[in-house]
């Protein structure tokens, strides 16, 4: 039964399967240990000495909360015991070289969705594990397809760890005895789903293909999609990904015309790459709208990228709209709307 399998037993079995597998297993175990500590901090809110208040800016100019800093410190302490060649974090300006003889590198977003901390909504930790190249200066400039493992933890009603080791996606939930146990094995995302997520307050800044896609969703049975959609926006990538892993759907954080958002908001190395690996391993897709996310390699650590991820059918439709201006025009033309001039 899935509920009986403990994460440490699962990692023990995996550690015997490939040359780097032991290092990957130790790193995932260290992240899981850190996650229990972070769950305690986020779970006690103002009762703990971590307030969730803004303390400054990180190297990328984002507001940094005290819990961002605390989560980063906890993860770095726990990962300090794992055999890691280089470590990168959203909260660090540059990657840190740890052990040149080690075989893997780890990139982390210690606390994702941090605007949700003080309002008691789900936040999380995201991680990506890569092979260590000979030149460690290139460790975080590899394509996403090079990842050995990726995952994220949600600190919400449940603390759950979503993990891919390159052979499907499994979910482990923290039980009351403080150990992660398998809750879902071999997660598969539905190919089509009727739910989309985007921060609609940016509508006036979007490019035409994104506007066309959202217009199709909003038009529902009266438009070209010919079915009604539901909408969500949690402003927490981990929560949106978990929802998609549970019931499908599509998430969009596209590029837009606001200053600084020409490549969207999310970071390639420690947000989009791991999410894309998880999506593909669960039978879904992740794209910029023009390119597969896993084909991209970052030229700098904090590089941003438009991210469209989720059910195959919806991600492909967004890609179609990006490739074909005539299609965008036809979606936007009221003449072709179901209840337009030609379709009463
Ligand atoms: O506030 P916005 O622009 O809607 O952005 C929300 C997005 O930003 C993020 O919070 C960025 O991650 P961080 O909190 O790690 O900076 C995502 O989790 C979320 O999808
Ligand atoms: Mg994040
Ligand atoms: Mg973060």
UniProtKB/TrEMBL annotation:
The residues that hold Mg(2+) 2 are 109, 112, 271
Q: Which UniProt keywords apply?
A: Carbohydrate metabolism, Cytoplasm, Hydrolase, Magnesium, Metal-binding
The EC designation for this entry is 3.1.3.11
Which locations, inside or outside the cell, does it occupy? Cytoplasm
Q: What is its main location?
A: cytoplasm
Any idea where the Fructose-1-6-bisphosphatase class 1 C-terminal domain is?
A: 189-322
One Pfam family named in its UniProt record: FBPase
Note how many cofactor molecules are bound and how: Binds 2 magnesium ions per subunit.
Q: Which CDD domains match?
A: FBPase
Entry protein name = Fructose-1,6-bisphosphatase class 1
Quaternary structure annotation from Swiss-Prot or TrEMBL: Homotetramer.
UniProt KW Hydrolase keyword: yes
Specify which residues bind substrate according to the UniProt entry for this protein.
Answer: 112-115, 199
Record-annotated residues binding Mg(2+) 1? 90, 109, 111
> Which domain of life does this protein belong to?
Bacteria
Gene (UniProt): fbp_1
Its pathway, per UniProt, is: Carbohydrate biosynthesis
What InterPro entries would the database entry show? Answer: FBPase_C_dom (IPR044015), FBPase_class-1 (IPR000146), FBPase_N (IPR033391), FBPtase (IPR028343)
């Amino acid at each position: 039964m899935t509920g009986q399998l403990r994460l440490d037993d699962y990692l023990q079995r995996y550690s015997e399967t490939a040359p780097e597998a032991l290092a990957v297993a130790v790193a995932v175990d260290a992240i899981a240990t850190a996650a229990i500590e972070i769950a305690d901090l986020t779970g006690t809110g103002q009762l703990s000495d971590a307030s969730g208040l803004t303390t400054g800016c990180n190297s990328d100019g984002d507001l940094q909360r005290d819990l961002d800093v605390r989560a980063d410190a906890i993860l770095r302490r726990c990962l300090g015991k794992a055999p890691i060649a280089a470590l990168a974090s959203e909260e660090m300006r540059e990657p840190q070289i740890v052990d040149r003889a080690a075989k893997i590198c780890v990139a982390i977003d210690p606390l994702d969705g941090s605007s949700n901390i003080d309002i008691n909504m789900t936040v999380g930790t995201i991680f990506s594990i890569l092979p260590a190249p000979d030149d460690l200066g290139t460790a975080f400039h590899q394509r996403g397809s090079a990842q050995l493992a990726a995952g994220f933890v949600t600190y919400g009603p449940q603390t759950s760890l979503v993990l891919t080791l390159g052979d499907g996606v499994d979910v482990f939930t923290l039980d009351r005895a403080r150990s992660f146990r398998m809750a879902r094995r071999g997660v598969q995302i539905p190919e089509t789903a009727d739910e989309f997520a985007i921060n609609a307050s940016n509508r006036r800044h979007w490019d035409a293909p994104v506007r066309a896609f959202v217009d199709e969703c909003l038009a529902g049975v009266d438009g070209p999609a010919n079915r009604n959609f539901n909408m969500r926006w949690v402003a927490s990538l981990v929560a949106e990904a978990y929802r998609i892993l549970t019931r499908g759907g599509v998430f969009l954080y596209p590029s837009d015309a606001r200053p600084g958002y020409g490549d969207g908001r999310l970071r390639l190395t420690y947000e989009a790459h791991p999410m894309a690996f998880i999506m593909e391993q669960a039978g879904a897709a992740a794209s910029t709208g023009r390119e597969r996310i896993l084909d991209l390699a970052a030229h700098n650590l904090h590089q941003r990228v438009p991210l469209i991820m989720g059910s195959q059918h919806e991600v492909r439709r967004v890609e179609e709209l990006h490739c074909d201006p005539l299609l965008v025009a036809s979606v936007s033309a009221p003449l072709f709307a179901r209840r337009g001039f030609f379709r009463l």
